[in-house]
Amino acid sequence: MIALLISDQEYLTKTYQGLKDLIGKFLKQKGYEIEMTELREKDLTFCRGCFGCWIKKPGECIINDGMAQINRRVMNSDVVIYLSPIVFGQFSPTIKNVIDKGLPNMLPFFEKRPDGSTMHPPRYDTYPSQIIVGYGDEISDEDKQLFIDVTKKHRRSIEVLIFQEPKENTIEALNKLELVRVGGLL
After folding, report:
1. Contact 170, 22 (CB under 8 A)
2. In the prediction, which pLDDT does 116 show?
3. Paired strand residues for 81
């Protein structure tokens, strides 16, 4: 089983290091092989909205910035965990860019959600379980809730956790999740 951890290298704080160590230890105890990707904002170009990943090279970003390899690693993993600082109630720009550039893993059509919004249908039969863990040294309750709400609104199949003391709360939350490939939506 493979677990891919994706993090923002521009926020390598003591809190981040503690979270990364905790998640790594947890996954190793569960028998996962861990792959780590630490990115900086300058490592990836922002999505241009060119639809080349749907028209010119279906399933692959046409921008040569390493995202095609990241998307392959995502799709070949059983679980993907994004470690993101909470910045004004949102994930960091780098993590948002990685999530946005996962678009090639979906089809270029639209489906209507029960709430009336639209989404892209899945390209593949199964996807890795996805978890985003928000962290920070002093996060307000409002920012925590905004982080959860915004993430859940745009990604129905992603689990959202907030890392905070005591660390056992994060382990307890992770133990409740199924860390296996799932069918349906990304």
Report:
1. yes
2. 84
3. 5, 131
Short-list 154, 147, 54, CA closest to 104: 54
Omega before residue 108 within 30° of 0, cis: no
- Which are the contacts of 144, defined by CB distance < 8 A and separation ≥ 6? 86, 89, 134, 162
pTM of the model: 0.92
Q: Which tokens belong to 40?
A: 């900086």
- List CB contacts of 30: < 8 A, sequence separation 6 or more: 1, 179
Give the integer Cα–Cα distance in Å for 120 and 129: 18
The amino acid sitting at 23 is I
User: Which residues have CB under 8 Å from 177's CB, separation 6+?
Assistant: 129, 131, 159
pLDDT tens per residue, range 106-145? 888 888 878 888 888 888 999 999 999 999 988 999 999 9
> What is the distance between the alpha carbons of residues 54 and 166, in angstroms, rounded to a whole number?
44
User: Contact at 8 Å (CB) between 80 and 127?
Assistant: no
β-pair partners for 6: 37, 82
Amino acid at 168: E
Residues ≥6 apart with Cβ < 8 Å to 65: 43, 44, 45
Calpha distance 114→127 (Å, rounded): 21
CB–CB of 162/144 below 8 Å?
A: yes
